[in-house]
Amino acid sequence: MNIFKFAALALLAALILGGCASGLGSNDYSRNQARSVQQVQTGVVVDVRNVNIEGTKTPIGAGAGAVVGGLAGSQLGRGNGSIAGAVLGAVAGGFAGSAVEEGVTRQKGLEITVRLDSGRTIAVTQGADEYFRPGDRVRVLSEGSTTRVTR
């Protein structure tokens, strides 16, 4: 396999993995959350802390990496050497693909501590698509296990 084919496969795998990233910010809603009732509370931001939200770890990253690694590894040697190269390439590619997926889908986030008007203090971690400062008046929207902070 020439270097151009390998680069094209690697690029394709990266694009597939990039499509796996789902938003975790205040403006991101799943299809299931659309047109559903949310409980709304208001409060004041007490503290904001930058955090990292780990990326996804699905079989897609490992699978794409295994395919690319297996194809690349099969080009090594002939006969049994080609088979061994394909197997080793698939295993190494699977691990690499999983790591790439996690890295590509990792996000910057915020841990926002809010003192609700009820007197209760909560902390919500979400993607950093909106920025908050201590003293900001905010809304806290909750539905089931999903909570977000918005202006």
Summarize the structure.
This protein is of the alpha+beta class and 151 residues long. The chain is built from 3 helices and 5 strands, in the order αβααββββ.
**Low-pLDDT ranges:** none
Compute the number of helices.
Answer: 3
- Report strand order across the widest sheet: 3-2-1-4-5
Strand segment count: 5
Mean pLDDT: 77
| SSE topology string | HEHHEEEE
* Form type: elongated
- Main pleated sheet: 5 strands, antiparallel
Amino-to-carboxy terminus distance:
53 Å
Instruction: Give the percentage of residues in beta strands.
Output: 25-35%
- Which structural class matches the secondary elements? alpha+beta
Helical amount among residues, as a percent range?
A: 25-40%
Q: What is the rounded Rg?
A: 22 Å
Describe the secondary-structure layout.
Layout: H1 3-18, E1 39-53, H2 59-73, H3 80-105, E2 107-116, E3 121-127, E4 137-143, E5 146-150
Helix pairs in contact: 1-2, 1-3, 2-3
Overview of the structural elements:
There is one protein chain. This protein is of the alpha+beta class and 151 residues long. It has 3 helices and 5 strands, in the order αβααββββ. It has a 5-stranded antiparallel β-sheet, with no helix packed on it. Strand 2 and strand 3 form a beta hairpin. Helix 2 packs antiparallel against helix 3. The longest helix is centred in the middle third of the chain and has 26 residues, at 80-105.
